[in-house]
Amino acid sequence: MELMTTSIWFVWMLFIGITAGLIVLEVFLARAERWWPGLIPPLFTFLWALFMCLNVASVGDVVSMLGALLITFLILNIPTWVLLAIYFVCREKKRKKKMLDKMNLHDLN
Predict the structure, then answer these.
(1) Mean pLDDT on 22-46
(2) Is the separation of the CB atoms in 10 and 29 below 8 Å?
(3) What percent of the chain has pLDDT above 70?
(4) For 58, which DSSP code?
(5) What number of CA atoms fall less than 13 Å from residue 9's CA on the CB side?
(6) Nearby residues of 53 by Cβ (< 8 Å), 6 or more positions away
(7) 80 to each of 9, 41, 49, 59, 69, how far by Cα in Å?
(8) How confident is the model at residue 65 (pLDDT cuts 50, 70, 90)?
(9) Nearest-angstrom CA–CA distance, 78 and 90
(10) Residue 12 burial class via C-beta count within 10 angstroms: exposed 0-12, middle 13-18, buried 19 and up
């Protein structure tokens, strides 16, 4: 029983560490000068969700299978939406700062 509890804690800590690292990476890449590096982590999570949907087994009729695929796709794309939200928030802050700097420079002239 003790080994099972330790394994569960290890898996949770690993999951939390990977999630935190992915969020930090997204913030770092979204603040980069170029716009496209911040879209790489959401692209990978989207492709991962597509790949995992291919692994959904047939559950009977077509309607049930399509429902299972849709639910699986929506749930697995939660990280994609979170990373895209982080990307757009960081880029918007960067855009506002750039406009403010441009306005301040214009006021000096």
Answers:
(1) 94
(2) no
(3) 92
(4) P
(5) 6
(6) 69, 72, 73, 76
(7) 25, 8, 9, 26, 17
(8) confident
(9) 18
(10) exposed
